[in-house]
Write a structure and sequence with these properties.
Largest sheet: none
Strand content: under 5%
Number of helices: 20
Helix content: over 70%
Distance between the termini: 47 Å
Order of helices and strands: HHHHHHHHHHHHHHHHHHHH
Length: 460
Amino acid sequence: MPLNEVLSILLLIAVCGVMMLGFPVAFTLAGVSVLFALIGAALGAFDVVFFHAIPSRFFGVMTNEVLVAVPLFVFMGVMLERSRIAEDLLTTMGQCFGSLRGGLGLSVTFVGMLLAASTGIVGATVVTMGLLSLPSMLKAGYDHKLACGTICASGTLGQIIPPSIALVILGDALAGTYSEAQLAKGNYLIEPFSVIDLFAGALLPGLMLGGFYLLYLIVTAFLRPSTCPPYYETGVSMGELSIRIAKALLPPVFLVIAVLGSILGGLATPTEAASFGGVGATLLAAMRGQLNLEVIQEVIRGTTRISCMVFAILLGASLFSLTFRGLGGDELVHQFLSGLPGGFFTAMLIVMLVMFLLGFVLDFIEIVFIVVPLVAPVLFLADISPVWLGVMMGINLQTSFLTPPFGWALFYIRGVAPPEVSTFDIYKGVMPFVVIQVIALVLLWNFPGIATWLPDQILK
């Protein structure tokens, strides 16, 4: 094996190993890549001319209008968290469904779906629902595993239900590789693909996944009623409950329709809709009496912290991509996937499996920036829909928040769960929902129209 290919393989191993040691991802990607580039240059296996592209790549990131949607959606989500909409939703929906077996679980899932379409920030959703719902579920006699699994899984729906920060990042990464793959095949009449297409494609699969969660809870309530008994307040009239539901539901529903509807209706780009969503979230916080200088400062700090983390990883991933390509690693990946027996089926299966396993130890942002540029060009050679591939990857990446031992949702719920809830309860509780996600992936693989039908109807 040529020296440059050996170095490209060692680069992958080194990056993964250093990240496993706990070093910051952005600096690991950049530092290890520069180190291997210098080693390769000293051994004659890397041409430093590749690094001449660094300024243009960094400038391209800073001027990418699509990526401007990331801090705007983060601002919208953090502001909505501070406006306490989630608290009202959980309280009201819990009262609405509480008289049913599994009613609290159903309300948590329903609120998770609505918050996913409102905020798209997994950490805030899981922590909020954990603080507000977990005590009530445990007080009602819910099985610890079922309660924790329901909250974790519902909170991660923000990964796949648009508008989602994950879909913005994934869509931007796929758009570039899709164009490159089409040009490499000599196809100069490229069918346009953007984040808007991915938003439209992910909507039905995301709702389908939420529906599967609801179905699982209903079946569990029938088969094992002792794990999810009914629990609700008494003395609340139907009229009062109706008023509560209207007050809790109308603001986030209006915001979802305004933001997502304007994107899918072609009235606004994701960035423009995100800015409108940020203003709308701020107005909602003001209407609820939650807007003051302290809240604004907290929202700005939270938005800056999350946005800086995302873009620092993106810039580090640019250095990694340049170094890996300069060492010939992209051609090595192409040869490996193209030479597999079974063709596209085997290549796609291995890519999905690798992304699933990486979700055990890496966050979705690292997986997108590291894996997608390497494997997507090869998969696109099979004339597959970029929308379908993006939704498949999106649902797969959602498991990165649920899979033990390092799923972020598990850490979030562990941080707010009482001592009587063990870490093993949390790990065991999420496993049925991981299985549900795998089932959803299998269905989507065999029926691509679940992802491609809506974009074909409204965007073509």
